[in-house]
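hey so u asked for the seq, here:
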Amino acid sequence: MRLGYNTSGFAYHSLHDAIEIIAELGYSCVALSLDVHHLNPFTSSAREVNAVAAQLGRLNLSCVIETGSRYLLDARRKHRPTLLDEDSDSRIQFLYRAAEIAEDLGAFAVSYWSGARPEGGAESDDVLFDRLAFHVEKLEGVCANHGVRAALEPEPDMLLEKMGQYDRLANLLGFRPGLTIDIGHLECMESEPEWEYLSTYRDVLYNLHLDDMLPGRHRHLFFGEGSVDFSRTFKTLREIGYTGPACVELSEASRIAVETAQRAKSFLVSVDSVGA
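ran it, structure tokens below
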């Protein structure tokens, strides 16, 4: 398992400094959230991408590409447009560009989500799931062509927010697409314990987000502030032989980024050693 930290939690740092600090703290992976100030996919040059690749190589860091930037595509509407909007061209361009950057950086996967239902839209969920299935199948192919994995994340308040909805999508596609699981999201949204889902979806689990959460409340909390049983979760990850990225996602802690990343690393090392 490649313990890492998401650059969204270093919103007030340059990308170069964030990566340096993440390595200094002993993480082995960086979840690189492409954003307006962190390797903007629409304005970054090949030289800038190559510089990040060289830095990751020098520091012996693996990487996963995250695409959850809030206002990259629309400065006034958070996370818009999505794959569910009729005019989704900029979202598609973003994700395809993310796959190119992932290849250039040697990243393990590109993580993405469905998006919320269109604002003021009248389409049924049946129509929206068909639309999502079309884009997911295309993105799976694009990522495969770039030698990386596509990893779809169930996200609260979006069309695909629970594992049952992931299953619905998989039935439409005829296969189970690559998956990102956020441990906190499972605690927030699901009725069964986290480890049940980790076992069930082990074959398509390509990326993990680590954070604590409370049932029914979508807010990323520091470890111990929610109700996730991380000892049992990490025990299950060892049992299923998970070796992919497992990155802390605490963007709201950017004001105390270094301290939070350091505390998180200490916690993860301690919980990972229990029963190892």
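DSSP finds nine helices and ten strands in the chain. Residues 125-145 form the longest helix (21 residues).
lmk if thats what u needed
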